[in-house]
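Handoff note, outgoing to incoming analyst
You'll be picking up this chain. Sequence as last confirmed:
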Amino acid sequence: MQGWFSILIMIALGAAFAAIAIGLSSLLGPRKPTPEKLAPYECGMPPVGNARDRQSVRFYLVAMIFLLFDIEVAFLYPWAMALRDLGWSGFVQMVLFLCLLLAGYVYVWRKGALDWGSDGSRR
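Most recent structure output, in case you need it:
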């Protein structure tokens, strides 16, 4: 039970901190809300339109493509750190990986998935 006692103390401290923070915010928080105080803050710009409007599928497609290529490029750092140990075979494998990555990027680009135009037509 001695190992669990420290975990229980941490849980109790976390719960106490949360309770104190909520209590202080209710005591010290604003009392007279105005329309300006209740308005959502969006990067210093006044909000336009409804927050529940549908987003274009292109937004999500570009986000997924960015994540895909960003994660693949993240493999370059460990490869660069281990290049001396990998030798020529590791170098050739990484060149092939980069060629596949470039081919995927060109494919996505040619398909027009990276175009931000509202009409959806390719140039």
